[in-house]
């Protein structure tokens, strides 16, 4: 999807016709409460992630500037909508939640953000291609997460809100993916680095501000063993269709190293 098109259709999440009393009556399970808090936190951190991206060479690309503006706006309202679902169902998050969650960012996360800005200058155009491909993976997994919430919830309002959010997440994914594809096609010399960085350094959305235990709980609770493996395969397959990424393994190694020991323990 072209940036101009994203900007044309970009909008605040439409909550027209949402009946909050129905949401409250249906309620949430304890696990849904945990999952929605996780998702609200991650959506809310978009502006912090954007601040980090603004320190990299990705913003030398005018397409990126246009997209980021619309993307950040939309993600903010995803967080707001989820937080409202939590609130009407009895869980009120702190008003300064976004800053609080950011404070929990690990030293590693902050160091990586600093390092990324420096490395981006060295990698230059190759960094932009990496950023696009990385973004495609993150939007894809987020979209799958919302789909799992829809598949498992018995709250009709949560289902409807996730459906509306997913429509925007698809646009985000499509923008990242198509740009990654174009850049990898046009620049064969970028492929090796993108592949190496994803295979070596990828981590799930939220891994920097959530503990490994929280990430493990999210993935094992929301996806379960069967769907988790399905998700890993789907991501590898989708990204594997990009030039130079055939047979790539992105999520599997991260899960094996970081989550498998925790899931086995619990
Ligand atoms: Fe979102
Ligand atoms: Fe998104």
Q: Secondary-structure element order, as H and E?
A: HHHHHHHHHHHH
N-to-C CA distance: 42 Å
Number of strands: 0
CATH superfamily: Ribonucleotide Reductase, subunit A
Number of domains: 1
Strand content: under 5%
Mean pLDDT: 91
Secondary-structure arrangement, i.e. CATH architecture: Orthogonal Bundle
Low-confidence stretches: none
**Overall spatial form:** globular
State the helix count.
12
Assembly level: single chain
Radius of gyration: 18 Å
Any ligands, ions or cofactors bound here, and which? fe (ii) ion
Look at the helices and sheets and give the structural class. Answer: mainly alpha
- What is the CATH third-level topology name? Ribonucleotide Reductase, subunit A
Helix content: over 70%
What is the CATH C level class, in words? Mainly Alpha
- Please outline the major beta sheet: none
Short description, anyone?
By secondary structure, this protein is mainly alpha-helical. The protein has helices at residues 3-9, 20-26, 30-44, 46-54, 62-88, 97-103, 107-123, 125-152, 156-186, 191-201, 212-240, 251-265. It has a single domain (3-265), classed as Orthogonal Bundle (Ribonucleotide Reductase, subunit A).
